[in-house]
């Protein structure tokens, strides 16, 4: 696995300061690689919806910030990288416990990155949601990060 273009501490700080709403979720990075990230969102009473399950907007926020972190792990601190599209498919009812996001970039180009995120309830090996999304990448100085199985950041 290649070294990511940003550190865990730098990414967590950017999330807390640059995206305060999601930063308030208490999300932490458990594992970071070039083009991959595992994040954990702790259970909070504020995330519960009627029926005793974790609310969709909280899970969507976790998936979006995981994709953001995975993109930045390849291109470095390019804060204006933004979501252009995202689709979430809720597969199962999540338990009222912490949610884990496993994200990987599937295609990295000069202007767009495409990735997927699987969301899991703590202690359950079956995903509760599958997310795909595209990020728009503004012009920036490229960071040299080689990732096995991915296209180089300067290819489109």
Automatic annotation (TrEMBL):
Asked if the Swiss-Prot or TrEMBL record annotates the protein with the keyword Hydrolase, the reply is yes
* One Pfam short name: 4HBT
Tell me the SUPFAM superfamilies matching this sequence. Answer: Thioesterase/thiol ester dehydrase-isomerase
Q: Which Gene3D superfamilies match?
A: Hotdog Thioesterase (3.10.129.10)
Q: Which residues form the Thioesterase domain?
A: 51-125
Which residue spans traverse the membrane? none
What keywords tag this UniProt record?
A: Hydrolase
Keyword Hydrolase carried by entry: yes
Q: Which domain of life is it from?
A: Bacteria
Q: What is this protein called?
A: Uncharacterized protein (TIGR00369 family)
